[in-house]
Structure formats: structure tokens, C-alpha cells
Amino acid sequence: MVKKICFVMDASPRFLGGTSIYVLNFIEYLNKLDKKFEITCIFPGEKKREKIEKGVKWVEIKHSSFFPFNMLGYTKKVANFLKKNNFDFINSHAMSGNYLRYHIPEKGFITNTYHGVAYYFYKIHLGEKKWIKKLGALYYMFFGSYLEKGAYKRADKTISVSEHVKKEIGFLYGKPKDSVVVRSSVDTSLFKHRNRIQILKELNLEKGVQYGLYVGRGGPWRKGLDRAIEISKELIKINKNFKLIVIGPSENKENSNLINQLKNSAKYIPIADRSLISKYYSISEIFFCFSRYEGGAPILTLGEAMASGCLPICSTDSNQEIIKDNYNGIILNGFKESNARRINNLLNNERQKKEIIKESKKEIGKHSIDNWGKKYLGAITK
To answer: pLDDT of 130-142, one tens digit each?
Structure first.
């Protein structure tokens, strides 16, 4: 018997952020199964429209552009849609679960997935220098918490993408009906080891350079772009062959000023599709995960880097729970000269570097789409 499943997304699938890719990866997994599902995806967009693509029904709901009214209006329209349509399973994500304030479907098993916690996500922005960003952080902390709390005790099950997210939401909102952890997945068919020399030639990059990589579309303060620049400056002082590749941050004065500190030792790519990004992972020896707060462990980009054979280097506060220091990655609590020397020594210790990368790839293999999909399917259907 065909089961009807509905995903309520908090962002357009065209915005390839962590939440969207989480859902898209799961749809890819479902489409491989012999057991058939009738899949509907609801997402916020620019127009009210529906289409069927590769057997999936996509329902776009027009909404306001100003937070929090965009999510309030969107989730109310989601509730109206669900009043008219029955599903066996409904899985919402993050703030989109607020639809449960307006309507709790009588039929169907309801889950809500948390990719982080709004209070802590925005709280770290109180550390920024500009007062307008501090005020913005307080605004988003309040309304973000209100929205994500909407589903917490109304859903049949809460899914968190890390142990610390599970603890954080439990601390803020109390005990849910049921709660499990299902970490993020990585597409190991796209992100994998490739011929480095061939890719260097294809990207028109130098052979004798040791490349570090930073990938992040989110705000540079939260994602730690300044930290990647800071430690790269120290690395360049002791290793003239080191260069940093920066992919994703918006083109603005603040980001440009940061990246320009590295002068000719940086390559900046504001926008790149995932296929191109996979090639940059392949030629990079190290990957910087220096976020001040992350929900996922691993986050999307770290998982992709690990699968591609990069040496993972994380900040303590990025809280990447699958990384063990000096075993399958490196964890730093600072970004000054001493830690730059630690990284450089490891880059030049081929045996130790290979051993850490080997364990890193072994760990991320546990989170392939097939392995992860089986666990996530079990979480949202029972």
C-alpha cells in the first residue's frame, strides 16, 4: 500500500542550505526504495503554485519577506493546506513546525526536526561589534524561539541533528513526547576522493600549493570567517606555500576586507554550485570548520569535506561531536601562532595526516545517504 508523506520545509529547495539539502537527500533515499511513497513537499516561495517533478509534488506558498511575519503567515497557510489534505506521515523542519499552533492533523504521525536552537543560534551574534547586529540578535532570539517552540510539544516526535541540540531544546522547552537524534548525511557519490592533479589542472590552480578551504553561506561571524583568516595569516608566515580558498560568503565590504588581508594568498568564490564545490574539496588539504555555533554534528560542509579526504580542523565551539582530536580531526580553541604551527607540523607529517584522514573518512561513511536514510525513515514513521 502506498503511504502518503509530506515534508514541510522552512526554506525553498532552491536555497541549498543545510535544511533543504537534508530533505532533498532524504527524498533521494526514498526514491531508491522498493516500498513506494507518495511524496509532497511544501515550501515558502515567491508565488503560489504547484508542480510535479520526478514523482514529487512541490507546493510553493507565497509569503511575506519580513521576519517573523514571513514564517507566521507561511505556517498558517501550511495549516490550511493540511486541513484539506490527509497524510500518513508529516515531517516539518525547524520553525516551519509552527503550523501546529493552528492545526494538529487528526490523521498521520507528526515529527519535527530541529537543525539548531534559535536562542543559541542568534545569541552568539551578541558578540559582534556593531550595536545594530546585537539588537537584531535579540529580536531574532525572541521570535525564533517562539516559532520553533510551536511544534515542540505538539508533534508526536522531536528529531535533533545532534546530541547538543537535543539537550538545548530540552533545557529551554521541557521534555517532549519523544525525542531522538539523527545526524546529517553526506552524498558520498558526489563528495569523494578524486585525482588531485587532474582537478588542479581543471580549476587552473597551482600544483605546489597546500590549499586550505572555508565554505559557508551563513553569516561570516557565526561561520567564523574571521577565524579562518586569522589562522591563515599565521600559517602563511611559516608556510609560503599555503593559500586559503573561501567559498560562499556574500560579496560585501566587510567580507572583502577580511579576505583581502591575505592578499595574493587567498582565492574568493562568492557563488558556486555543489558540483564545483566538490572539486575544491578534492584539491584542499585541510578544511576549516570554525563556527561559533552549529546545530548539526557534522554540519553539511564538514561531512562533505571529510568524505572528500580533507583534513578536518574544527573550533571547540562548533561542537562537531563526531570529531575526536588527533584521531579523526583536529580541534582548536584558538587561532594564533601556536595552533598555526600545530596545523603546519601536521601538514608536513604525511604518516599522521593520512591516518587522521583515514579515520575521518571511515567515520563519515557511517553517515552516507543510505545509512542515514534508513535511520531517518524509522524516526519519522514510528
So the answer is: 889 899 999 999 9
Pairwise CA distance, residues 257 & 266, whole Å: 12
- Whether 3-185+368-381 shares its CATH topology with 196-365 is answered yes
Check the CA dihedral 77-82-85-88 and report its sign: positive
Beta-ladder partners of 181:
160
Degrees to nearest 5, angle at CA 38 with 37 and 40: 125
Report domain extents, the chain: 3-185+368-381, 196-365
3-class DSSP state for residue 182? coil
Question: Is the separation of the CB atoms in 279 and 203 below 8 Å?
Answer: yes
Nearest to 231 by CA among 350, 345, 341: 341
Establish whether the linkage from the previous residue to 298 is cis, with ω within 30° of 0: yes
- Residue 86 DSSP symbol: -
Separation in Å, CA 379 to CA 42, 93, 94, 136: 20, 14, 16, 35
| Kind plus residue range of the DSSP H or E element containing 109 | strand 109-114
By CB atoms closer than 10 A (0-12, 13-18, 19+), residue 35 is exposed
In the CATH scheme, what architecture does the domain 196-365 have?
A: 3-Layer(aba) Sandwich (3.40)
Q: Domain 3-185+368-381: which CATH class?
A: alpha beta
CB 173 within 8 Å of CB 153:
yes
Residue with cell 594564533: 336
Return all residues near 363 (Cβ < 8 A) that are at least 6 apart: 306, 322, 328
State pLDDT tens for residues 245-290.
Answer: 999 888 888 888 999 999 999 999 988 888 999 999 999 999 999 9
